[in-house]
Structure formats: C-alpha cells, structure tokens
Amino acid sequence: MQKRFVTIWFRYLRTDWFTIRQPRLHQLAFVLASPDHGRMVITAVNPIAHEQGIDAGIVLADARAIIPSLYFFDDKPELSVKILKSIAEWCIRFSPAVAIDPPDGLIMDVSGCTHLWGGEKPYLSAIIKRLKDFGYHVRASMADTIGAAWAISRFGEDGSIIDPGAQTTALLKLPPAALRLDTGILERLQKLGLTQIKNLIGMPRSALRKRFGDDLILKLDQALGFKEEMICPVHQIEPYQERLPCLEPIVTAVAIEIALKKLLEILCHRLRHEGKGIRIACFKCYRVDGRVEKINIETNRASHNIDHLFKLFELKIPGIEPALGIELFTLEASKVEDVFSVQEKLWEKICGLENIKLSELMDRLANRVGANCIHRYVPEEYYWPERSTRLASFFYEKLNTIWRSDKPRPVQLLSKPEPIEVTAPIPDYPPMLFRYKNKLHKIKKADGPERIEREWWLEEGPHRDYYCVEDEDGHRYWLFRSGHYSADRNYQWFIHGFFA
Fold first, then answer.
1. Per-domain residue ranges of the chain
2. If we measure between CA atoms, which residue out of 464, 451, 469, 459 comes closest to residue 491?
3. Quick count: other Cβ atoms within 10 Å of Cβ 330?
4. 56, 300, 375, 420 — which has fewest CB within 10 A?
5. Structure pTM?
6. Are 249 and 329 spatial neighbours (Cβ–Cβ below 8 Å)?
7. pLDDT in tens, 333-381
C-alpha cells in the first residue's frame, strides 16, 4: 500500500485556544507571555497582534509601546502539548494513526483512509474545514513522506496535495528551513547562499556531511523518501480494529445496530480465517461534538460467532447517547485467543464446560449482571470444609482432584460457620429444632453424625460432628456440634451450609 501522510500546522495554536474559550478576544489584540530573567517575554501572539508587528520573543513592555491597548495572559507550561493531544484524539475519526508534532503540529498516517471520503482532495478539505470551524487557523498538506508534507504545509500552498512520487519536485523551490533543520545549520546555509533545497540536492553527500553533519542528510533523505520516518500515535493501533465512517451523522439506535453488525461481520470474518476469536472487545462511537461513547464486552471463551457477540453488545446499546450524531464507528478486539474446535463423539452429546452453548450463556449472564457476580469453585484435597473448595482462577480450569460424592455436601457453604441455638433430646443425638436469625426451625428428618477431624498438621482445635437435617418446610441444612459433649461445660452448635 502506498504510504500517504497529512501534516497540520496550527499557526496560532495557543492564542486560538484562548479565543475559543473567550469569544470576546476575537476582535482584540492579545499575546501570551512568561517571565524570563525578570521581564515578561511574549511567547505567542494572536493574528491581530501579529498583523500589527508583534511577534514571539519580543519583550512585553516593548510590545505595549507599539500597541498600548495590547492584552496579555500568562502562558501555561505544557499547554501546547495538552491542546495537541486533545485535537489528535479528535482527529482519530479521520485516521487511526495520529501523532503530535510539538509545538504546533499534528502528523497523520492516512494510508488507505482517503477513499472513505471520496478521494484525497475531499478528505483533506474535510479536515481543514472542521478544524477551522472549531476556531483554529490551520494549514495542511498531503504527501508520500512526513518531511515533504511538513514542508509544504508551512512553506507551500495551503491544502496542497503532492502526487505520489512527486515530493522531490515539490521541495526544490522551498527554503532549507522546510527540512526541519536546527538554527545553527540554517545560519551556515544562509551565509553560503544556499537559500533553496534545490541547491542542496545536487551536492555530494560527503561534502554536505562534512560541513553540516548527519542531521541535514537524514532530514533530506526522509523528506525525499529515501529513509523511512516513523510516528508515535497518541493511541496505539489495535492489531484487530475495524472502522466505519458515516456520510451523515447517525442518531438512531437502529442505525447504530446496523453499523455494529457490519463491523462484527468484517472483524469476525478476518478472525475466522486466522483461527482466532474475541475475548475482549470495545465498540466506540465518535460523536460530532468530539465526545466518544463506548461499550465493552468480555467472553469466557474466544469466539467469532457474530450473532452471539452482537447479543452481548445489544444489551448495552441503549446506554449510547448519540446527541447531535455519530460520525465514526470503530470496533477493537483488544484481546484475542486461538479458537480450538471441540471433538464431538458420534453417540454422545457435548456436555460440561466444553459445551459452546454453556459458554455463550455464561457470556450473556456476565455482560448483564457483571463478570464478578459469577463464580466457579473447584475441589481441593483437604478434609476441613473451609479448605475443601476454592475459587477457580479461570472458568475452564482443569480439576486437580475430583469432587467427593460419598458424603452429601451443601450447594452453598458459608465462608464462616454461624452459631445457632439447638435443642436436642440427648447431647449426642441429632437436634430436634434450632433457631437461626431469630427464626425457629423444627426438624423432621436428620442424618448423621459425620465426624470431621481437624487437620492437626495445619492447626489445632476440636473436631466437628455434622448432621444433614430437614425442617418441616422441606428446607435442608448442614449443622454441626463443635467438640465432644461434656457435662461440666456448654457445647456450641453451628450452621455451615444450605442444600438445594
């Protein structure tokens, strides 16, 4: 794919930012200034002040001698970077790869994006118009290389689009400053009368390197396309991401669902061919006003089932607020895993944790009530009930030991046994009734005792005698008496679990 880049130059970035927030400044000459060696020095000017001869680097007192009514504001540290990052995040609707170019520019890798706007010219025009509508004075251009686009945007004609492979011709008449060179190099070039890039291109590289260093050679080669130049986007591009721009802003839930289905079809088709599936995905909606609405889903098992994934997203679509409209949709799969086919048996149905239907059911429940509300427990090789189970580290964790089936165990086991009041005919007999949380339960059936000794190699303490009991309402409980019965002291009963 042919590489194409767009660079955007905000000539009055910081003062435009102040004007957008304080519209009264639109008709006034004002500057930004910061202290420097006991005096206030101008660091940025607005267009009106610039037209009257004020420029950055002038002492504020001298500028006020020229324009007595000149307003000034304290400059803010790192303001340029904050503004550029904010605009770069907004520009993601035009390209997924947007990088800041401090102190006053942006760089966009637009390879493969322009056709979505009907071509390069409508694409670049749309970017310039939107930014100017916000209130920024911008110049932008497009070329095969970052260096060429940067040079044309600042020293060429605004809105220029350099044809593929024509960057050399476009750079010839520009000054050396268009190559992003240091001030010292530019001064030496000026003294030698090398006032245009065409004066440098034909010179031997060894002579240029000897007199001006490697930086000039590097910047020249990058601008001409002989060496590749990389950018660092404000948001790293997900390897599995699909984008869907809209010709008109979308405001209805039905249209959002259509966009989501289309993105799922494209992404899942790609994942299916690679043998992968989605574990974590994010659906983002870029609104006209700059805000981004997003919804996330997670799956227990990697999936590229379009219908299943759409149902997970569908539960959260009502939470999206389109406001004035959505102009770009993206679908990102931030976590993908290999999809393994389950071997089916000829005479048996797939069951257990390997059942795809079970996995999809768990996904729907988790996305409705929250993944933290669903737990799976696995057995541990301990006799003591509190240590006999643990929370599985993940849903499909393999068992290290089997569940005990020789003795009944409650479906719900309390993490800590709770004391109860019990009446028993004989101390070693099952209880006749018990009181739990101020409610009296009369026991109709009882089974036990089952004695469980404490694991002496881990801790000391009394044993427990467990009883499975059923009250007159048909509810079943797991009760135990702690320790041996003794006539000279009271013994304590506890409830430890509930059967289904």
1. 1-233, 241-338, 412-498
2. 464
3. 22
4. 375
5. 0.69
6. no
7. 998 988 866 555 544 555 566 667 767 777 777 777 766 667 777 788 7
